[in-house]
Amino acid sequence: MKVQKFGGSSLADGKRIKKTLQIVLDEKTNHYVVLSAMKGITNLLVEASKNAEKGNSDYKLQLLDITKRHRSVIEELFPTEKRSSINEKINYLLDELKDILHGVELVQECSLRTKDLIMSFGERLNCSIVAEYFNSTGHPSQMIDAREIIITDDNYGSSNVFLQKSYKKIKERLENTGQIYIITGFISGSEKGITTTLGRNGSDYTAAIIGAAMESETVEIWTDVDGVLTADPRVVHNSFVIPYLSIEEAMELSYFGAEVIHPYTLMPTIEKNIPVIIKNTLNTKAKGTIISKNSVNRERAITGIASIDNVSFINVEGGGMLGIPGIASSIFSALADAEVNIIMITQASSEHSICIVCRTIEVEKAIYHLNKRLEYEIKTKKINRIDVKNDLEIIAVIGENMKGMTGISGKLFSSLGDSGINILAIAQGSSERNISFVIESSDKNTALNTIHKTFIG
Ligand code: ASP
Predict the structure, then answer these.
(1) DSSP-assigned states of every residue in 196-241
(2) First-to-last CA distance in the chain?
């Protein structure tokens, strides 16, 4: 059996939903289909909840938009005489949503718990329509509300799943009856039965949990690109789809900006050794990218290049840092207090400076907290300066085959040198799977194209 997950872009309108049915039916296995909300609906729900919380009646506009989008899909999918039953279900859900938003408007307060409930309507509305549509075309289908089978704690906004409990519930509920199960992605329920969610873009995680529980053969993630690419196609025009990725490579690439999938959310499939395949709804012939434990690209040293825009570099420097334990700890605690995510760290063995790279939007609060925490060291001149440099880019060169291979860094940095690119900082973990470095943003295009040409072709 297979689990197939379709994201919002595969469900943007009636035409795409019809295409999705075709893809599901092309598979002659049992059908476990996980769906996101229709494209853009979760964002509208978030916007509506924010407006209602401010007491701003504009949430009614978003509600209207949500209503119109679903109604027009119903019109596209069902002939007039068959619309009444689905309209009844949808109206029921939309009325409930309207009441909740009105409640939020009255109290001008929207807790994370309430926000989870509001966001859950995206997947519930969409799955109701799709299940009804599949049934109307003569393919017996049943909608499964994942709040009954995916059990979490009550960390609203991004709940933690109790996997074993959920696996048991899933197996009980999804016994093989030969029908198509249409399962709501993203949403879950706490042990007390309260609606929770798995965090934004959480439907991949839903698919992974269902796949792991049912010990499926594969989990397919259907999206709107042909797979994971060797580099950003907007910058590197001859980038191409990577056919195989190891789990670690997928994690590194997705972290560094290849936004196709969040392998962290695929942990349940990794644990059970279930391959995950990225496929394109708009181009079903494309083979996609297979992510699995053993899939290693054997042809090239470097599998892919990723990059993160809009980063800044904070350099903490001082003669008094040398040989003194605890300075690094103070720096990292200050950044943790500031809730700043550190993307990259470098420290030369002279211990004279520590360089941290974070997102530019976080740099101001990072500096504030560093100055506060290191006040004594600055006063006593152990630290001489804290400098910031903006408009930077992190480039990460990723590949399982780099491990133990000599000459990769040499070739990488001399090719960049030949192209006149200045490197501001370098980091390589001992896994040898990733070499990351920082350059000026203006050098991004040249750097990506140079590396792609040198290593990938
Ligand atoms: N609909 C949810 C979101 O937009 C979950 C998902 O699409 O994966 O975040």
Answers:
(1) EE--TTTHHHHHHHHHHHHT-SEEEEEESSSS-BSS-TTT-TT--B
(2) 37
Give every CB contact of residue 71 below 8 A, 6+ residues apart in sequence. 90
Q: Which domains does the chain have, with CATH numbers?
A: 2-218 (3.40.1160.10), 304-456 (3.30.2130.10)
In short, whether 186's Cβ falls inside 6 Å of ligand 1 is: yes
Query: What's the rounded Cα separation, in Å, for the pair 212 and 217?
Result: 9
Q: Tokens at residue 75, please?
A: 């019109």
Q: Average pLDDT for residues 149-174, to the nearest whole number? A: 96
DSSP string of 160-200? Answer: PB-HHHHHHHHHHHT---SSEEEEESSEEEETTS-EEE--T
Q: Are 421 and 450 contacting, i.e. CB atoms less than 8 angstroms apart?
A: yes
Q: Which two tokens stand for residue 166?
A: 């959920």
59-77 and 112-136 helices, crossing angle to 10°: 10
Structure confidence at residue 3 (pLDDT): 96
CA 35 / ligand 1 centre spacing (Å): 9
* pLDDT at 262 (0 to 100): 73
pLDDT-based confidence at 257, cuts 50/70/90?
low
Q: How confident is the model at residue 29 (pLDDT cuts 50, 70, 90)?
A: confident
CA of 256 from ligand 1 middle (Å) equals 20
The encoded tokens of residue 325 equal 């334990």
Predicted pLDDT of residue 260: 64
pLDDT at 294 (0 to 100): 74
